[in-house]
Write a structure and sequence with these properties.
- The structure is a single chain.
- The chain contains three helices and 33 strands.
- By secondary structure, the chain is mainly beta.
- The protein folds into three domains: 202 residues, no CATH class; 205 residues; 112 residues, Jelly Rolls.
- The chain has a ten-stranded mixed β-sheet with strand order 1-4-9-6-7-8-5-11-12-2, with no helix packed on it.
- The radius of gyration is 38 Å and the shape is elongated.
Length: 611
């Protein structure tokens, strides 16, 4: 009895402690998670592989997993309202490993430990839920060695899944942060095209299975991107070249290609280490301290080359998150007339025109649209003092591609590239050929791969339209016949000679003449047959004006598509029995005609008579 009475205080203490424990346990809030987009980052409407802002889930409360017991796992799936185009890191497999990553608790670079097991890395609790205690790179499944970087799987065209993610409730020790990064999307599919069109949002949605292990409250969908046009391409004007006037390499550029950045981060270099002196350099981009996706302002996303993952590199050797190149722009020249050579600037430098790594934006020509950067060297003697590069023509087309090796995310850049054309005039051989050349300007490379592949990154849709840059026109001779008649029993004989065949070895030229009649009774034109050099073509005006009743009186301008044409008119009554007269046609200077029809000038084609 005495012994029992002595136990009463002990039992009371035990009861008090148990009650306190129950009360304390009851005061721990249940696990609760909220979402937030890292940043609603600008995305180029032309882009097929645009980096979205990071998707962040923050969890608090819950009861931490006891020491040594398995941490509950959850499968997390994210969706975009467009195709996910993050690089596939393998060439086969269903589902295929993606470059998309899930990170737990924003680990510092030295504390990032990748899960190299598919589909999951087992984790055990520490009893506290504190991140600094839980994560490590030692033996998987032992205390303190939970992995904190997981590779996603592409499970649908717009979905990536992360399997077996251990979510240890943080309890009262802080919070659990889930960050999903390296999600790329097909921004072009959302249809922003007009310059003044409002941006369209890219939305990311998260789901979890089982839901009670990751109870996301509030909005499970966040805006992670704002799609807007990134590029405006213009040319400074279109020029007319005369076939009979040569253009030497010393001639100035005739137009300028302008690539206008429409928001300050539309042009990006490949990696933080990229520079004109080190175009292929690569450093890790994995410091998450104060990190918001987009602050790197590079085409590459999150990179940690030391991570052990199921598929850390793609078939082409690129690491998870690594882009193949920086922003590239291209010019595609089409319909270049045979005989014309095209040159373009090799380098754009926003500051001084020379390559300096302290400048804001530098773009340098690269040898291929779809290969790693290879600088195209300048050649002395080319236009622009050796600053230009001659383009190789294939079927009258040529392409120039420039890559940005330095970019300034705080300025809007207008990258200008000059264009030159050279040729030796030989109209007798129809060289250069007649025609109008065009150019298309766009991002590069252009691709039709609009879903996730192990293809190159970045890549773009072709949203360009052709713009005229120059036209080669024939050198003509304009002949004025000031009086022509078929009235009152008269007719006019017209003779036109092609006189380029001569004792001085002039280039022989042939072509047709368009006879333009102007008068009250009739205005119209007819075309002659080809008048071969060294021959004369003769015709009657009445034969051209058969539809005019009662005869016709007026003047005629013959536009001959060759130089050194001369004309003669002979007017007489029918049969030249009573009255007849003849005159030489006047040579009109090349249009536009001026107040002085015969200026003292050595320019123009044909001859200028009447001095």
């Amino acid at each position: 009895m005495v012994d029992f009475r002595r136990m009463i205080p002990v039992l009371a203490v035990i009861a008090f402690l148990l009650g306190s424990a129950v009360t304390a346990s009851a005061q721990v809030p249940a696990l609760s998670c909220t979402t937030a987009g890292g940043v609603n980052t600008p995305m180029r409407a032309e882009g097929l592989t645009e980096l979205a802002g990071d998707f962040i889930v923050t969890c608090t409360g819950g009861t931490s997993t006891p020491l040594g017991l398995p941490v509950p796992t959850v499968n997390i799936q994210v969706f975009l309202n467009t195709s996910i185009t993050s690089r596939l890191m393998t060439s086969s497999g269903v589902p295929t490993a993606s470059e998309a990553l899930l990170l737990l608790d924003d680990p510092l670079p030295a504390s990032q430990f990748g899960c190299a097991v598919t589909p999951t890395c087992p984790a055990v609790g520490t009893g506290s839920g504190a991140a600094a205690i839980a994560y490590g790179g030692g033996t998987v499944g032992t205390v303190g060695n939970t992995r904190n970087v997981y590779q996603g799987l592409q499970t649908a065209s717009n979905a990536v899944t992360f399997l077996g993610i251990p979510i240890d409730p943080p309890g009262t020790s802080g919070q659990r942060i889930i960050r999903i990064t390296n999600i790329r999307g097909n921004a072009n599919a959302l249809g922003v095209s007009a310059a003044n069109q409002a941006p369209v949002s890219v939305f990311e949605t998260i789901t979890a299975t089982p839901f009670n292990f990751l109870p996301v409250s509030g909005l499970a969908t966040q805006a992670v991107g704002s799609v807007q046009r990134g590029l405006a391409f213009t040319v400074s004007g279109s020029t007319t070249f005369q076939q009979c006037v040569s253009r030497a390499s010393s001639a100035g550029s005739f137009t300028t290609l302008r690539y206008q950045e429409l928001f300050a981060t539309a042009f990006k270099k490949r990696n933080l280490a990229t520079a004109p002196s080190a175009p292929l350099a690569l450093v890790n981009q994995n410091n998450l301290t104060g990190f918001i996706q987009g602050t790197f302002n590079t085409e590459s996303g999150f990179i940690n080359t030391s991570l052990t993952l199921p598929s850390p590199t793609a078939p082409n050797g690129r690491f998870v998150g690594e882009a193949d190149w920086g922003t590239r722009v291209r010019a595609v020249f089409n319909n270049i007339p045979a005989g014309v050579s095209i040159f373009v600037d090799r380098v754009f430098d926003s500051a001084s025109g020379t390559v300096s790594e302290l400048d804001g934006d530098i773009a340098v020509m690269t040898a291929s649209e779809t290969a790693p950067f290879t600088a195209v060297p300048g050649v002395s003697g080319t236009p622009g003092g050796g600053a230009s590069v001659q383009l190789t023509l294939v079927n009258n087309s040529a392409t120039a591609v420039w890559e940005f090796l330095t970019t300034d995310p705080t300025s809007l850049v207008r990258a200008d590239f000059r264009v030159w054309a050279t040729y030796t005039a030989n109209p007798g051989s129809n060289s250069p050929a007649l025609g109008t050349a065009t150019v298309n300007g766009s991002y590069a490379p252009i691709s039709t791969a609009t879903n996730a592949t192990n293809n190159t990154i970045p890549r773009f849709a072709d949203t360009s339209t052709p713009q005229n840059i120059f036209t080669v026109v024939p050198c003509v001779t304009n002949l004025l016949f000031p009086f022509v008649t078929t009235a009152a029993g008269f007719d006019t004989g017209i003779a036109i000679s092609s006189t380029s065949t001569d004792p001085w070895g002039t280039s022989a030229q042939s072509g047709t003449c368009t006879l333009n009649y102007y008068g009250l009774a009739f205005t119209g034109n007819v075309t002659s047959p080809v008048i071969t050099s060294g021959t004369t073509h003769a015709r009657l005006a009445s034969g051209d004006l058969t539809g005019v009743t009662g005869g016709w009186t007026g003047y005629m301008i013959a536009v001959c598509r060759f130089q050194y044409a001369h004309g003669f008119a002979f007017i007489s009554d029918i049969g030249a029995r009573n009255l007849a007269m003849g005159y030489l046609a006047l040579v009109i200077p090349d249009p536009p005609r001026t107040a002085n029809p015969f200026p003292f000038s050595t320019t123009g084609s044909g001859e200028q008579l009447g001095f």
